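This section describes the prediction task in plain terms. A model, or a person checking by hand, is given the sequence of a single protein chain and must write out its three-dimensional structure as a string of C-alpha cells. No templates, partner chains or ligands are provided. The sample shown here is typical of the held-out split.
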Amino acid sequence: MSSVLFQLLGVRKSYGDFVALHGLDVEVRQGTIGLLGPNGAGKSTLIKTLLGLLTFEQGQVTVMGHRLPHGQRAIRREVGYMPENDCYLPRMTAVEYVTFAGRLCGMPRRDAFQRAHETLHYVGLGEARYRRLGTFSTGMKQRCKLAQALVHGPRLVLLDEPTNGLDPEGRDQMLDLINDVARRDISVMLSTHILSDVERTCERALLLNRGEIIHYGSIADMKDDRKNNYEIQVRDGADKLADKLRERGATIDEDRGAKLVVTLPPDENTNLILRAAIDAEVQLRHLVPYHMTLETAFLGIIKEQNQTGGLIREEGAPEVALVEG
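The expected answer:
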C-alpha cells in the first residue's frame, strides 16, 4: 500500500480573476500534517479540491491513489472530512446524522448504523446519540462532526478548524481525540490558524501563502533552524550591547527594548556575549538559549518568502517547484 496521501502537479484554481491556488506541486506522505497559512492563503480551497468538491483549471490531483475528477467516489470512501462550518439538520439526532454520513460514503445501511453508535461512543457522545443536534453545545457539535468524518473507517481525515469556538476544556478534549485518531494509523491533515494546536498534534507542516506552497517539512526542523540563538535581557544599554555584538559578527534577530534575540556565528558561544557586555559596560540580567516556537518559525518563513519568493522544504523531501499560473 502506497504511503503517499496525495500528490499535486501544477494545480491551479481560480475564482474569476482571483487565483486561489498558484500551480501547486507537492507530494504528501502518511502521518500528521498541519495545514497552515494566513487568512485567504488557500487552505480551505486546497481541502475542497482534494475532496473533489471544487474543480480546478489545470494540473493533476491524485488522492489515495485515485485521480480526480474521476476518482471522487473512491476518494470519499477512503477520506473523512470535518468541515469548518456546521452542516447538519438541527432536527436530526446524532446517530441519524452520523449514519447518513456513512451512507454517503458508500456504507450499507446496517453497517453505517452500527458504526455510528460505535463512533459516537468513541468521541464521547454515546449517551447523547439520540438527542437532536439542535440541542447540542458547540463542543458536542464539533465532536459529532468528527464522528461523521470517522464513521466509514477512512485512512485519511481532513479537519478544517476542528477547535473553532471551543472553550479551553473542549479544545483539550478535541486535541486529545485527534492525537488518538493518529495513533490508530489514520493520517490526519489539520487546517487551523491556532499554531499551538498544530504543535501539539502534528509531525509536519504544509505552509500556504497567497495560494503558493512556501514550506513542506517537519515541524522539528522548522523550529531548529536557529541553533546558536540566545535571548538576552540587560538592565539598560541594550543598544550599546547590540552594537558590540554586531562588531563581533553576531546578528540581532529581534530587538524588544531591553531584550535581544541574538544569533551568534557558528563557531562562537556565550563567551562572545559576555565579552561584548563587558566592553559595552552593561549588566546582563538574563541569558538563555532561545527556543523558537512554531509561531516564530511560521512568521519567519512567511517574511522570507515575501522577500525572496519560492518554496522552503526540508532536507530529503521530494523536489517540488512552484509553477506560476
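For orientation: The CA atoms of residues 80 and 149 lie 4 Å apart.
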